[in-house]
């Protein structure tokens, strides 16, 4: 993490000077040896992890919650009235509570931090004359980085070549409009925003391509220096935790008021002030669900960890809540539904069809004509088409020690593979024909063009892209013998259609001769100048398991649509293979058709189609908006720079960890480490499970608070002794929340969780059925605890004995309720949740200690129980279990199951 420096004013020097000063080379980059030395000298290109609030601040935060303040006050008053042991116990509890909260919070934070490390950031560099992909932390000053639209700039660098390069520097300068970059010298000591020949770490490339030489890495970068100054404190709050925190606060206020009234009523009835004070404290301590917000954060964090295990990295905690409510998943095709393992299956050139054998990117196979391997010299149109595929191409395919190593876009790698299968030496070809200009591929453009100069000085342009795009620019075509002939567009379209209907991805290839002296590509000048060379059709099979995942989504009431830049027929075939539009075959709408609709028509189409093909990023955004208008919760995938607005707009923006751009990842709520559609389905499932567990935890915890509160109020109103004392309530709340309640966070998913309909996010956490159950259990606890206390007294037991019985009623009834709580509507037999067993066993041991160990007697005013006491305790626990199960049965019979499951 050492700071590094490069030329201080690189923007004022010419690119050549900067490159020379750094001892590197524009054409070949650094050597491996230089990189090693520089890395030793400058360290990794990383920033120290952003710590947020300091440890000490977070420790202090533990003491700012209202309950703790009440407790500290109570402890002070307890000392004043001479109850030193109680005061000590209360103080110890406050401390213990703070420690537990602090440890839990840190653990949750660490888990989240570790997950954010899972998304690597790679960058393309030139080293030893070769283009390679390296993790951005391995960059050193002097590295030549190759920038492409969608990349995050990995270090501060001086631009040496730029093609239409624009960067979004808002992260650094606050300027939201992209800044155009060039290699021109900028004179004077201008501010960052005006250093148009520099690119800065952490900013985004929004447009074009370029090469830049790294001048500063790690903390020496501009962003590194700024970050040192700003230490923001963003706690992982979600709408839910915020709502619960507010709920807790309001509840605290209400309970304090009730406590005050109880105190006053007691005094009026002539009770002693100290007794009433103790009762009021007991009420406050018991009824305030102080642990709720923290427990919710822990449950969410556990959910995040589970999702990460299933390849879905949640970047924003609220996404966990939203995921479970998803009603539509709009997924890309290439790489998400399909494997993006492109293999050229057929080539059509000069009207002839060629089949290609062998799969994968290793060039093991042949290009065949009439079932026989071709002789390249007899198929000039084919070879011209494959040559264009090699030249108009940024990918690399090298033979390394462990076999063939592809670098770059799989579509382009496949073109190198097929060229090699046809006997073409692509490395030589690229050396002979130097690239002098490029029009990079962009989804919105759907094509790419390059300009090459041969040794004799001849300049040729090569174009590849979507058929419609290329065909409309073609003037003529090559026939099988390589002669230029008039273009038969309908024959070409028919051939492409035939290939696409079997699910193949079709690309068209063309070339042109620019006018003399033209050494730049002018997109506007291309139409009417190209000669069509042929079509290449690639197979890209659906990923394994996607069909099942689609089915699981449909069962779960989640609609799945495919949104792709690819051809309608290719998309239709792939969609059918994975089971979209199962009954009648997928309904396919193209971008052109979408463009022709508006208003209600657009909404109608958006609501009914299974596949949107040849869709532009702007249309993706319109689709999200239309679906949201119809009340949908939309999860949308995207990988390109232009997808960022749609990703931000979607309720769950999903980006890819492997392919896809940093810009898209930055805009997303969730990143898939394996780019697989099935992982979205898994995340939805986990989201539902987290939400379920949260509701279970809340449903489990509230009756204890209500029960304890009511017991105290009842005792004061009836003028009887308190069945439980403040320290005893503290004990119950502190131990059961951790040992019992939190084990619900580890509950496995309920069977059938993906057969429910999605839960509207606006629906409150606690709906009618659940509230009824919470009240039912609260009443059982009050009646049970109060009843057992009085029965024990009536049987001649001393108050400490009767209180010990009442405490055990609470704890054992909570255990029984916990076992029931694992499902809202079904009686669950066994469990795979080992934490649950461990929790119940620990809690039982603690209660035995509390009941029989003399030290605990001293601290908590307890006493040993006899058999009658235990029988009463167990009877209430059993009654709790039975009553809740009966309640479930009534619910099922009333077929109001939906209220629990989806409500
Ligand atoms: P999806 O949107 O599902 O990821 P896609 O990869 O087909 O599918 P885009 O990347 O937007 O979507 O590509 C749109 C079209 O542009 C493709 O169907 C193809 O015809 C063409 N195309 C794709 N990659 C290249 C490339 N590297 N060079 C030229 N044209 C390309």
TrEMBL record:
Query: Keywords in UniProt for this one?
Result: ATP-binding, Membrane, Nucleotide-binding, Translocase, Transmembrane, Transmembrane helix
Q: Its topology with respect to the membrane?
A: Multi-pass membrane protein
Which residue ranges run through the membrane?
Answer: 63-81, 87-103, 251-270, 276-305, 697-722, 728-746, 770-789, 801-823, 835-855, 867-884
What sequence ranges are listed for the domain Cation-transporting P-type ATPase N-terminal?
9-83
Q: Which Gene3D superfamilies match?
A: Calcium-transporting ATPase, cytoplasmic domain N (3.40.1110.10), Calcium-transporting ATPase, cytoplasmic transduction domain A (2.70.150.10), Calcium-transporting ATPase, transmembrane domain (1.20.1110.10), HAD superfamily/HAD-like (3.40.50.1000)
Subcellular localization, as worded in the UniProt entry = Cell membrane
**Where is the signal peptide, in residue numbers?**
none
Give the catalytic activity: ATP + H2O = ADP + phosphate + H(+)
Cited Pfam families: Cation_ATPase, Cation_ATPase_C, Cation_ATPase_N, E1-E2_ATPase
Superkingdom classification of source: Bacteria
Question: What family does this belong to?
Answer: Belongs to the cation transport ATPase (P-type) (TC 3.A.3) family. Type IIA subfamily.
- Its recorded name reads Cation-translocating P-type ATPase
Q: Which organism is it from?
A: Haloechinothrix salitolerans
């Amino acid at each position: 993490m050492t700071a590094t420096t490069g030329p201080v004013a690189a923007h004022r020097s010419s690119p050549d000077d900067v490159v020379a000063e750094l001892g590197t080379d524009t054409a070949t980059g650094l050597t491996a040896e230089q990189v090693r030395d520089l890395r030793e000298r400058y360290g990794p290109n990383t920033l120290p992890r952003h710590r947020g609030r300091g440890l000490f601040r977070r420790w202090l935060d533990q003491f700012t919650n209202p309950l703790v303040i009440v407790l500290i006050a109570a402890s002070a008053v307890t000392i004043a009235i001479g109850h030193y042991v109680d005061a000590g116990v209360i103080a110890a509890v406050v401390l213990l509570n703070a420690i537990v909260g602090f440890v839990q919070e840190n653990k949750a934070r660490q888990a989240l931090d570790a997950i954010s490390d899972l998304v690597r950031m790679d960058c393309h560099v030139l080293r030893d004359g070769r283009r390679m992909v390296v993790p951005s932390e391995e960059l050193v000053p002097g590295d030549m980085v190759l920038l492409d639209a969608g990349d995050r700039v990995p270090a501060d660098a001086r631009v040496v070549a730029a093609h239409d390069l624009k960067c979004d520097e808002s992260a650094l300068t606050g300027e939201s409009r992209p800044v155009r970059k060039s290699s021109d010298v900028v004179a004077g000591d201008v501010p960052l925003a005006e250093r148009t020949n520099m690119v800065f770490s952490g900013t985004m490339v929004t447009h074009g391509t370029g090469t830049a030489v790294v001048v500063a890495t790690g903390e020496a970068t501009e962003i590194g220096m700024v970050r040192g100054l700003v230490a923001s404190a963003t706690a992982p709050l979600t709408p839910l935790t915020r709502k619960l925190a507010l709920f807790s606060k309001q509840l605290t206020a209400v309970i304090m008021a009730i406590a005050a009234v109880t105190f006053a009523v007691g005094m009026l009835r002539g009770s002693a002030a100290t007794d009433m004070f103790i009762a009021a404290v007991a009420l406050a301590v018991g009824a305030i669900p102080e642990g709720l917000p923290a427990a919710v954060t822990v449950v969410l964090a556990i959910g995040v960890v589970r999702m990460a295990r299933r390849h879905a990295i949640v970047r924003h905690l609220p996404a966990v809540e939203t995921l479970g409510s998803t009603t539509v998943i709009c997924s890309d095709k290439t790489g998400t539904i399909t494997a993006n393992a492109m293999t050229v299956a057929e080539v059509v050139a000069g009207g002839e069809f060629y089949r290609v054998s062998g799969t994968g990117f290793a060039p093991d196979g042949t290009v065949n004509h009439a079932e026989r391997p071709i002789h390249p010299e007899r198929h000039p149109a084919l070879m011209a088409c494959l040559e264009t595929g090699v030249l108009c191409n940024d990918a690399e395919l090298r033979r390394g020690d462990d076999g063939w190593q592809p670098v770059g876009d799989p579509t382009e790698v496949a073109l190198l593979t097929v060229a090699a299968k046809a006997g073409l030496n692509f490395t030589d070809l690229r050396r002979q024909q130097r690239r002098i200009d490029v029009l990079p591929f962009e989804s919105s453009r759907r094509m790419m063009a390059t300009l090459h100069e041969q040794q004799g000085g001849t300049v040729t342009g090569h174009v590849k892209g979507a058929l419609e795009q290329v065909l409309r620019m073609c003037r003529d075509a090559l026939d099988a013998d390589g002669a230029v002939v008039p273009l038969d567009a309908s024959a070409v379209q028919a051939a492409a259609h035939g290939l696409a209907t079997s699910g193949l991805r079709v690309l068209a290839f063309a070339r042109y001769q620019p006018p003399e002296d033209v050494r730049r590509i002018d997109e506007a000048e291309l139409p009417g100048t190209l000669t069509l060379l042929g079509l290449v059709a690639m197979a890209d099979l659906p990923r394994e398991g996607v069909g099942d995942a689609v089915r699981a989504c449909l069962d779960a009431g989640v609609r799945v649509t495919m949104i792709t830049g690819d051809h309608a027929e290719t998309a239709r075939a792939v969609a059918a293979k994975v089971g979209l539009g199962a009954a009648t075959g997928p309904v396919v709408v193209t971008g052109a058709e979408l463009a022709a609709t508006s208003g209600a028509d657009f909404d109608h189409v958006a609501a009914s189609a299974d596949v949107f093909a040849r869709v532009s990023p702007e249309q993706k955004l319109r689709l999200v908006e239309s679906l949201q208008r119809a009340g949908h919760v939309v999860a949308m995938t995207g990988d390109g720079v232009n997808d960022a607005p749609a990703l931000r707009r979607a309720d769950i923006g999903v980006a890819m960890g492997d392919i896809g751009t940093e810009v898209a990842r930055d805009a997303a709520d969730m990143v898939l480490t394996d780019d697989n559609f099935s992982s979205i389905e898994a995340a939805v499932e986990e989201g539902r499970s987290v939400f379920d567990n949260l509701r279970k935890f809340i449903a489990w915890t509230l009756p204890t608070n209500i029960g304890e509160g009511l017991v105290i109020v009842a005792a004061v109103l009836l003028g009887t002794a308190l069945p439980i004392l403040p320290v005893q309530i503290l004990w119950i709340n502190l131990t059961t929340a951790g040992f019992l309640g939190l084990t619900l966070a580890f509950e496995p998913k309920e069977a059938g969780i993906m057969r429910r309909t999605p839960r509207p996010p606006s629906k409150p956490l606690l709906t009618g059925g659940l509230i009824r159950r919470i009240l039912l259990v609260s009443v059982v606890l009050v009646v049970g605890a109060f009843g057992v206390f009085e029965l024990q007294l009536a049987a001649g037991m001393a108050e400490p004995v009767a209180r010990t019985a009442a405490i055990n009623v609470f704890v054992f009834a909570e255990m029984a309720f916990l076992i029931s709580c694992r499902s809202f509507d079904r009686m669950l037999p066994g469990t795979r949740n080992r934490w649950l067993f461990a929790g119940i066993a620990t809690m039982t041991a603690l209660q035995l200690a509390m009941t029989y160990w003399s030290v605990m007697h001293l601290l908590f005013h307890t006493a040993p129980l006899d058999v009658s006491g235990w029988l009463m305790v167990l009877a209430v626990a059993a009654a709790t279990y039975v009553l809740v199960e009966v309640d479930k049965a009534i619910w099922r019979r009333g077929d109001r199951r939906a209220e629990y499951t989806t409500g």
